[in-house]
Each structure stands twice: as structure tokens, then as C-alpha cells.
Amino acid sequence: MEVVLPFLAEGVDEATVSFWKVDEGDDVANEDELVEMFTNKAVFSVPSPISGLVEEILATEGEVVKVGQALCRIKD
Predict the structure, then answer these.
(1) Chain segment 15-71, per-residue pLDDT in tens
(2) Which of 8, 53, 59, 62 could form a disulfide with 12 if both were Cys (CB 3.0 to 4.6 A apart)?
(3) Domain boundaries, the chain
(4) Could you tell me which CATH number the domain at 2-75 has?
């Protein structure tokens, strides 16, 4: 399953990866925080939508990603 940057707010269509709270190969539970992101207005974490194994991190720290863009892949 690909974890994507969710809709944030009206008029906000991108965010920057601040830092990853997990590494590739880590086991995560549903709702565990995966990555901290920021916009010019807020700092927030993206939670895991499922329990599983972090297979691949697709967005690097400092990278700007668009809403709907994949951040990582989790295998359940």
C-alpha cells in the first residue's frame, strides 16, 4: 500500500518532508506516526493507515511533495 500526502486544507497543495520517524524495514501499527511534514502554516505528522512493514521510503527529508503523492510503501 502506498501512503500518500493527504488533503491538508483549502489552498494548501504541498508540504515538505521534515523527518522520518521510521526506517525502511520497520514494523508499524495502524495510526503510528510515520513522518513529520510542514507547510508555511503548520507542522503535522502523517500516520500509518495500516499495520505492516515499511518497504520503501519514497520521499526524502527536505523534499516538497504534492497532495496525493506517495510518501512510502507499507506491506501488510
Answers:
(1) 999 999 999 999 999 999 999 999 998 999 999 999 999 999 999 999 999 999 999
(2) 8
(3) 2-75
(4) 2.40.50.100
Q: Give residue 54's Cα distance to chain centre.
A: 11
User: 55: Cβ–Cβ under 8 A, 6 or more apart, which residues?
Assistant: 24, 72, 73, 74, 75
Helix (H, G, I), strand (E, B) or coil at 7: coil
SS3 call for 15: strand
Residue found by looking up cell 516538497 in the block:
64
Using only C-alpha atoms, the chain has a radius of gyration, in whole angstroms, of: 12
Contacts of 9 (CB under 8 A, 6+ apart): 41
